[in-house]
Amino acid sequence: MAILIHTLADHNDDVNCCAFSSSCLATCSLDKTVRVYSLNGFSELPYSPLKRHTYAVHCCCFSPSGHALASCSTDGTTVVWDARDGRVLAVLEQPSSSPVRVCRFSPKSTYLVSGAADGSVALWNVQSLKLYRSGSVKDGSLVACAFSPNGNFFVTGSSCGDLTIWDDKMRCLYNEKAHDLGVTCCDISSQPISGVELKYQCTLNGHSAPVLACAFSWDGQMLVSGSVDKHAIIYETSTGSTLHTLSQHNRYVTTCVFAPRSPLLATGSMDKTVNIWQVDFTQPCAANTVEKESEVAVEYWSEDDVSAWLRAQDLEDFVGLFKRNNIDGKELLNLTRESLTNELKIESLGLRRKVLQKIEDLRMQTRSVAVPDELLCPITRELMKDPVIAADGYSYEREAMENWLSNNRRSSPMTNLPLPSPLLTPNRTLKMAISRWLETQQKQS
User: Nearest Cα to 222, choosing from 275, 265, 277?
Assistant: First the structure.
């Protein structure tokens, strides 16, 4: 199931790109701006919109930590912003001064790639924010880019239809003609990749017009595409079968992206809007996916299961440490900043934050699987404490809905239709059901 839960309509021109971090959504537009929203209620952050570019903004992306945000523009620059306060950290001028069409951070935030209309590719060192290497494709504009999961190589797509694989030293490893009418977007799934040769696997059909955007879900089990036919289609990766067709936009769907470790999907369009969807992630997962919805809950993971999870999170350096301290699933979920510092002796603040963020993501995933959907607030996706019924007939956490209404929103978070009244009525029946469910969980624990 895919449910439209919110529509953003703040841009005054075509939306070109959307990007998620673990806590925010960024959007960019032909209107020269980048806008940033909190995922808690989808309210726009105080420093938004960002207005450094002088022409259309074509692409935006967050660094893996979510602390930096990059955007690129027809003005020939890629701007790096501090995602916490909106400060400009750097303005990176494309060596050729050509309009920049795409930008991407590497998985470990070592590099930032920017690709331009003249086919030039720039690889920037993120720490120094200086140009590291540059190159170019033979023909056409460079309009798409995606990094491999480990960051050892990246793929670029051009308007002439070529896909080119580069290593992290900007050496061209492989080139393949992929589409006769040009590549408009490309993405690499999170599943392990062996080798760098491109081999055709399958063609996904469903759109009746050119495809403009595509993206894998965080677990690699779904793929979404957006098209000139005004639709976005979600496919099951393993079978290629269509799971959902999303038809709420009234002009071309130019961008689509899944949130990391969250049931959210964003689609943007030439209709100047961004739709936020809640997607059912209960599709069967591949056997080699550690975080699958398996019969074994996280709290019952063995030490080996925890080790496998660490490797999947690119935390392999901690496997030995966790094993020496006998960290199983239950211990993993109970780790805190203090225990990481005092008991596991992880001295680096950055590493502690990284581990804690991964554990918190796992806790959220565990809660979303364990808690019945009808007990979760549609806005926060958390177990409700004080549920209320809004005028649309749906139940929400009181604080979340009050925040929604306080931001001058008068549409339903679930249907996007106008709310006939701001009145909120306590849902005592649902509150009793939540209490009974909590009591049952306590008895089982």
Answer: 265
The amino acid present at 307, given as its one-letter code, is S
State the sign of the Cα–Cα–Cα–Cα dihedral 15, 17, 22, 24. negative
SS3 state of residue 375 = helix
409, 444 in Cβ contact below 8 A?
A: no
Peptide bond into 49 cis (omega under 30): yes
Q: What distance in Å separates the CA atoms of residue 398 and residue 421, rounded to the nearest whole number?
A: 15
Q: Where are the alpha helices (DSSP H) in 222-345?
A: 303-312, 319-324, 329-333, 337-342
Among 294-298, 410-414, 424-428, where is mean pLDDT lowest?
A: 294-298
Residue 338's CB is within 10 A of a number of other CB atoms, namely: 8
pLDDT class for 172, splitting at 50, 70, 90? confident
User: Can you give the length of the chain in residues?
Assistant: 445
DSSP per-residue letters across 312-351: HTT-GGGHHHHHHTT--HHHHHT--HHHHHHTS----HHH
Dihedral of alpha carbons 361, 362, 363, 367, sign: positive
pLDDT at 292 over 60: no
Render 80-97 in DSSP notation, one character per residue: EEETTT--EEEEEE-TT-
230: left (phi over 0), alpha (psi -120 to 50) or beta: left
Which tens digit of pLDDT belongs to each residue from 252-282? 999 999 998 888 999 999 999 999 999 887 6
What is the residue type of 72? Answer: C
Helix (H) / strand (E) containing 187: none
Measured between alpha carbons, how far is residue 282 from residues 188, 214, 236, 369 in Å? 21, 21, 11, 9
Q: What is the model's pTM?
A: 0.64
Q: What is the pLDDT of residue 371?
A: 67
* Total Cβ atoms within 10 A of residue 313: 18
Question: pLDDT tens across 48-104, in order?
Answer: 999 999 999 999 999 998 999 999 999 999 999 999 999 999 999 999 899 999 999
If one compares 178 and 80, the residue with the highest pLDDT of the two is: 80
- Which amino acid belongs to residue 175? N
